[in-house]
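Deliverable D5.2: sample structural annotation.
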Amino acid sequence: MTFKATSEKIDIDKVRGLARLEGKALELKEKRDRELEAIIRCKDNRVLLVMGPCSSDNEEAVLEYARRLAQLQEEVKERIFIVMRVYTAKPRTNGDGYKGLIHQPETDEAPSLINGINAVRRLHYRVIKETGLTTADEMLYPENLPLVEDLVSYIAVGARSVENQQHRFVASGFSAPAGMKNPTSGNLNVMFNGIYAAQNKQSFLFNNQEVETNGNPLAHVILRGALNEYGRNIPNYYYDNLLETIELYEKMGLENPFIVIDTNHDNSGKQYLEQVRIVRQTLINRDWNEKIKQYVRGFMIESYLEDGRQDEPEIFGKSITDPCLGWNKTEQLVREIYDTLGK
């Protein structure tokens, strides 16, 4: 073994105690969590938007975005329920790019995972406490989930993680919705097998203990597009793609069928402005087909304060990872969704 410990063993209870929800903030989160569960269970017909920066690299910029989003949520709450993306760990398959707040809490300083863990908790806590929004994060590292599970209201299992048994099993023990993305190959069976595993009871080793879970009936589909053998993006939000996904849902008999369309990544080819068109086309498809309307009830949208992306964090509120819609276009899109749903 070549592993070398560079810190003391993390005390999870101590870390959680640094930013723990109490009183009215806890009551608000629990209320919103119940509303979100009702949406996934089709007992509330509002559309779910999981939206926010590609990566939460700057605490003050993220909080400014959260304040604006919270005000917008209040204005559209009749038809739309928003969970804010506060993504703090980024998969990096090539190079040494930015791996997220958990690795590098200060983008101009060296990585510091211990400080990163504290920064992650503080950011989720502040968004909830200061704006009343609840948050989503990607479960890139399953063993880290206990560090934030009391704060996050939604987790996503990414395209490169959905085939991993540990991710599937840990998702089965999460009490809130878990969105499972299709893999980069586009193989829907892989994603559905992940959802099946997450929805069922599991027994496995987790953080040096044998554990059992009850299964997570709120695990569901996120369609994010695919890559072909030549590296070309292949969208999977089109009308026929949706019907194929619904057919697989019905064939497998999974609980609480729910489909979220990821409007960026390989659905847009990371052409961030395409997110607007993808939302519009999906809303049209819902109107054309009652079954699509029944199943497709969510969007994942990447947006921040400024349009596009940058290589270095020079412009406040502009992504340093994937390009995002800026605030003006974000606000216009959310209002357009709201108006369309009212027709």
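Annotation notes: The longest strand covers residues 296-302. The two ends are 62 Å apart (CA to CA).
The annotation will be released with the project's public dataset once the embargo ends.
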